[in-house]
Every structure is written in C-alpha cells, then in structure tokens.
Amino acid sequence: MKLKKEELLHFYRKMVEIRKFETKVVELFADGMIPGFVHSYIGEEAVAVGACSNLNDDDYITSTHRGHGHLIAKGGHMDKMMAELFGKETGYCKGKGGSMHIADVDLGILGANGIVGGGFPIAAGAGLSAKMRGTNQVAVCFFGDGASNQTTFHEGINLASIWDLPVVFVCENNMYGISLSQKEHQHIKDISDRATAYGIPGVTVDGNDVIAVYEAVKEAVKRARQGEGPTLIECKTYRHRGHFEGDPTVYRSEEEVEQWKKKDPIKRFRKKLLELGTVTEDELNSIDEEVDKMVEEAVEYAKKGKFPEPEKAVEDVYTDIVEEVRE
Amino acid sequence: MSRVGIIANPASGKDIRRLVAYGTVIDNEEKVNIAKRVILGMVSMGIKEIFIMPDTFGIGDKAIYQLKKRKSIDNQVKILEMTIEGSQNDSTKAANLMKEKGVKCIVTLGGDGTNRAVSKGCGGVPLIPISTGTNNVFPRFMEGTYAGIAAGLIAGWPEDKELFVVNKRLVVVKNGKKVDSALIDAVVSREIFIGARAVWDMEKVTQIIITRGEPTNIGLSSIGGYLYPIKWDEPKGLYIEIGNNLTVRAPIAPGIVKEVGIKKYTVLNIGDKVEVKTKPCTIALDGEREVEFTQNDKGYIMLDTGGPRVVDVKKTLLKGVKNRIFIKEREEI
Amino acid sequence: MRKMTVAEAIREALRLEMKRDERVFIMGEDVGKFGGCFGVTQGLYEEFGPERVKDTPISETAIIGSAVGAAATGMRPVPEIMFCDFLTVPMDQLVNQAAKMRYMFGGKAKIPMTVRVPVGAGMSAAAQHSQCLEAWFIHVPGLKVVMPSTPADHAGLLISSIRDDNPVMFFEHKMLYGVEGEVPDEIEPIPLGKADIKREGEDVTVIATSMMVYKSLEAAKELEKDGISIEVVDPRTLFPLDKETIFESVKKTNRVVIVHEAVKRGGVGAEIAAQIADEMFDYLDAPIKRVAALNVPIPFSPPLEKYVVPDVKDIINAVKSIAR
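ok -> structure tokens follow
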C-alpha cells in the first residue's frame, strides 16, 4: 500500500478536526451551552479516520453514542453537528436527535445510537440491502468493547456471516464499558478472538495508529466488496476523557491515562510525518489553523441558529401523519 | 535451586495475516491450556520454582488458578514481578529478569516475533520455543507436556552444550547504532509506516535477508528455501534482491503461494553486511514491520551468530531416557 | 369475488407485492422451504427463490434489526416473527430503532417495513405462544398497528402496510388462518386508518378486533333474538385509529362495548374507551364496557384457556348489561 501525500494529510486533517471539535464541545458543555449527555471521542480519532478513509460516500456506517468522530470521518459537516448539539433547528436532526443520535443519512450514516450494541443488526441489514440491490456498497459497524457483550453482537455478526454480507465490524476497544474494565466485563482480552466463533477473520490492530487501522479495514472492505463476507477488526484504543462529560472516572488511575496519552494518535502521526520529511511543519500548522477556524465557524453557526418552534416536536414521527399538538 | 521460566505472548497470532492470508488462530484460552501442560511437565520433574511473565490477558494467572483449583500444583509457579505495558517489550523485559534470577531454561509460547523479543533479553539462557503464532519458522508445534519435561531435565543437569543449538541472527544497524535484530528474516519494504505490521504486499518488498530458508519454512524466508536453501545450522545466510530476472514460487504466508520476482541472490557469510538501499522504508523483522528508515537514515543489516540458544528437545529427552531417569526397577525382582 | 382463507389472502397479498416491487422481500424463521410455521408463506420460496424468501436463524433481534437496516437503505422488508410472544426478544430494535429513527434523524430516514405477527390463543399453546400484545405497540409513537379480521381485510391492509413508508406491526390471529371469506378478484389496497362496520345496528356499538369480530357477529345473532340490535365496528388499524367511524356509531347507539382478546388491563380497549369518554361524553347513555381476557397469562389446559379468553357469552352479557 503506497500512500500519497494527500492521503496522509487527509488522515491528519480529519483526526485534527475530530480532536478540535471534541475539545470545543467539552468546553461548551462545561459552559452549559450544550444540554444532555456528551461522550467525547478524544483519544480514539485514529479508529474513525483509519476506517472511514476506506469508504465511499454511499457506503454505510452505524455509529455509537460516542459518534461525533465517525460523522466527521465519514465526511459530515461540523457546523450542522454543532448546531444539533446545541439543540438548534439548523442542526442535522432539527434538534430532535442531539449528540447521541447524530445522523447524516445522505452520507450513509445510519445514526449514532443511544443503545449500546444497537447497530449490529442494522449494519447487517444495510449490508443485506446492498447485496440484494447488487451495489458495491459496504457497511461498517462501529462498536465498543462493552457492546461486544450484548446479544446483538452475536445475532448481527452471525447473520452477516451466514449470508456473507458486506459488513466490517470495527471494535473500538477502549478497555472500559462505562466504569467496568474489560477484565471485569469479559473473560477474554482480544475481542477479535470471537471471530472464530462465526467462521470469519478476526484481527487486532493498534487503534491509536491510523495507518494500522486503515490497512486492516482496507483489506476487510476489499474482502466485503468481493462478496467474501464480514470481518471483525479490533482496534485497541483509549478514551482520554470519561465515559461522559462529568464522569469522575474513579475507576481508572491517573498513571494509566498518562500512559495512553503518550500514545496519542495525533501526536504520534504528526511526529512520524515530520520524521519522514514528506510534509513540513508549516503545512501541518496551517491545517491546524484551518481547523481552528472551521470549529469557530461551526460554533458561530450553531449559536446563530434558532431553537426549533416547540410545535415542531409533533412532526417527523411518521412520513404521513402529524401528531396532535398540545392544546 | 533449579529455576525455569515461561513466557507466553498474549498477542501472538492475532495480526492481519488472519485476514490477508490464512494465518493460524490460537486464542488465549488455548495458550492457558498449553501453559498448564508445560507447568505440569516441569513439576513432574520436581521443579520447585517456575516463573511466568505477567501479561494483559493473565495467561499465567489463569493457568495457576486453574491448576491450584484441581490441586495439581502447590506454590511452585510464580508470576514474575514486573510492570507490563502490553507490548513486545514485556517479553524482552521478562526474559531479562528471568536471566537475572538464574533460570536454566525458558519455554516460550508465541511465534517468530515473540522469540525475537525474548532473544533480545534472555542472554545465554536456552529456549524451548512452542509455536502459537502466525508465522512460525523459529518455534515448533510441540506438545507442552514434554516441552516442560525437557525444561525440567535441563534445569536439573549441569550445562551440556551438546543439547543446545546456537542460532544465527540479523542485526539492524541504523546510523551507526544497533537498533534491533531478527532471528529468521529482515525484509526491506517501501511501506513507510509500521501500520498493521505484517508484510503481505510483495510489490512493496525490495530486499530480503535471511538467516535460514528451507522448503519447510513458511513466510518470506521460504523464498530462500525454494531458491537456494540455507539450513538453520549452516554458518551462512542469503541475500535476495527483488526484481525481474527470474521468479520463484514460494509459500510467502500461511496459505499463500506466490511467484516472486528475483533480481539476484547472494550467499552471506557470518559478519557480512547488506546495505539498506530503499529509502524511506520499513524493515520487517521476522514478519512484522519494526524499524523505520527515513530518506536521511543510513544503515545495514548484518548476519552474526548472536542468536539465542535453543534446546534440542528430542536429544534432551533421549539423554534422560538413556540415563534411566524415567525408569524405576522394583528392587525385589 | 372469490373464496379465500385468511392465510391464502395474506399469501396472495405478499405474492402481488413481491411481483410488483422487487424491493419487497420476506424474512423470518422457517418462512422458506418449510412454508412458515402456519403455512402462510407456502409456495413463495419456490416462486421467488431463497434470496427473497429468506430463512433466518432463530434470532429475532437480527430479523428485526436487519429489516430496519435494509428498510433504511432502500428495501421494503416484510419480516415475520413466528409468535407474537417472541416480540419481547427484538423489542429494542422495534421500539428504539425502527420506531424512532426517522424522528431522531429529523425526518430524514424512512423505515418501510411490515412486521407480520401471528397472535392469539385457542390451540393450547400456553403462556408463551398465545398472547396478543398489540397494545404495547400503539404506545410507541413511530409505529403503525394493524389488526384485521376478514380475509379481504388481511389482503388489502397488508398491501397498504407494505407500501407504507413507516414501520407497521401487522397482527394476524393464528386461529383465523383457516377461516374463509369473500375476497375481490382484484385485490385493492385498503387504506390504514379506516374502520369497517361489519354489521349495522341500532342499540349498542360493539368495537371488536381480530377474532373478536367473529365472536361479536355471533353474539349479534343471539342478541337479535332478544330484540337487541348491535353495530359491530372493526377498527382494523389500531393506529392510526379511525375515530370518525367509531364516533359516528356512538352517536347513533349511545352505548359502547369494546371487545379484544388481549388482557383487559392496559389493553387497546382502555385507549379507545378513554377517547370516547373524552370526546363523546355527551352522547353516552351508559358506561363503556370492556370485554377482554382475564388479567392472567394464557393457561395450557383447554378448559382453563377457554375460560380466560372472552367468548360470545361474555359479549352478550356485556351488551345486555347496558342495553336499553
């Protein structure tokens, strides 16, 4: 695999976009500008970017409650997402979804999901649909280590495997299901081991190395498009922040967090790019600055947008029925 | 007091070759089972102190717990006291600690990559490598029980050089410094990133240096095996440059037999150096991309005999038989 | 007109829609070669092949969830859940995914799927194979709920459900599969949200669903002997509910009995009664009565089962208790 300079810069830019977006979200949440729950993707950027960089606009993904990164990596708009987090009518979902249900159906994003493990059968269904329609599309199902204990993991992967559906199951193993460490929530260490149970390939890669994720998902996507069926790819990674903003994270040590921060996917990749000499520090800095501006503009867009009229709450339940409004 | 060690790599056999090739799948529960059999083999020979490397999966913990539950062991087995980082450095560190504790033999559970890491720390301590990895030239598929028995014998005897074989090694020198080493092969690839580690795209490979290559090898060293075999114990190596002068068909990964284009090949003698020509590049050591060379880096790969000593298990067991270690006659007959 | 059983009518509707629209496909446990647990899909596997009549593993969550994914990406799946009781298994995929996707995504997704579900007691199938759980689903905004009685209604409503761009729960009573009725030669879609008056009458409005429509019609004959004329209204779809037809009937009779096979507590009858009480209070001359199963699980032994589910006699008694 020979990566062109533009591709490398794309990886870098997308990871920085996620990092800076999420950093801003954390700040705005603390300031009370964002209602509800926010689950930060900081630290896991390499997974979304490495995986989605193999996808076309019409490929599908199912995301998780920690979904902002997936949307950015799949090519979604930061401003519409920010507006949605603010609960504005200019947001992706007109303020009806929020952080946990961000979706851009036109980009094949079948939604972030508030139910842990909710995406497995949906991704299988998207793969089934692509196969039945005779397209070349694939579906990538993102999920965490916690979700791998849900029944949907088994049913979804089993279905995809018996029908050879074009689905890539990408596990973001960040070592905790909310407060429970992986050791406490399952008796295995490598979730890729479970692939054997479905007769499909299972691979573990360094989830903090965007190239490692990219390479593995590339092979899996190729396999899926050739009709060879699903693959399970486990990416070992770590969330720098708590499960949700406000999580006191009493369940893990400062040392552990610091160890993982040393393996920060963006810092690592930046260092590597500079060592290689394929890009200059100026080039990377100017990307950083462009992204800073993008994020500022997204915040402006979100702030400028109006809150939806309350009566709009009754729309969009059905395609053809509008529910009654409050008298 | 005779001491032995066990190093089981929880990460072996999980890499991308399970996807791009048909690599072996050995889950960690099976490694626990093998570790248990190795321990029981050792204990049967009266070994009182067995050290196991701690790991993120807890192969050692689980083996000890399960054996104690069945009352098959007392307190012979100890988890080595060390902090783990969940990388191959753990194996190197554990091997080093075991050496310091004076273990007489280390049984390893892993593939070529695992043994490479162990060899960087074990010094002269002989190894018994059991294969649980993806690409296995160095270790062998071997039943853990008799591997444990052999380790027990080695630990109880004064050193007998006849029972060990010395391995060759490839040393990577970058900008004048030894940065890493390989036991089987070093492969220069135009890939510029370590990424998913394995090398499966032959289009990117430019140079291959091997310490051994036999037709019964799997992986890139097999190219040598099907072109100009070099035995594991010959004081020679082989250098292959990829190109278009001829092709050789070889099993370059599990289940993958491919024609590989060769420009030229040369036999290496101990001490010979091969310059790293492609830059930037990554160098895969025993199957995994490990060392990165940028445009400005200079260096070479050298063949030497500094590899680890490996126990000839069969010879060891036969010596035990010959010495009537396993036989007890009833005195009154 | 031609004679058809409910099962044949459903099969015919499925066949017509699959021929008309290649995006329509069937999936479920044993729906293929086996022809369905109750034989409803018999012959469709041979006609349309394994790709469009898909046998699934026994994985209700995967059946519903993959239908959601397929529906969201351009297909029109018709999954079958073998017994209504098994709907508890894929509940998340129905309630949190299928029903809410469109809303959560600001109106940008369409989930055109029809879940076919056999319901009902009557074959000693006991507590986990006999329930009527339709009330749960009217409680979930985002789902439509259809529960027909006659062969013609099953056919016409199933066609409309499959063509609908929203997730539809389609409840079929398994003891009705063999019941015959007139079906038009050309099956036309029957719009969702249109009730049907199965029998006109003057004295009491009996709103009945599914199997209970037949029981109410039987009761009507008996009551006629006593000079009581009941009007039997079959809502056919429980959401959207045709309040207009129901209210018109109430205006005429001023008396209402609601009959369903599901347990009384929290049943569909409670919702319909509340709506009538709320909006038609001035037209009521008697309390609204509900006839439903006792608030117990469906028992196994035939006399116990028969006792628990409502019967013609129960309907007659309820009507008499409020008739003039």
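DSSP finds eleven helices and seven strands in chain A.
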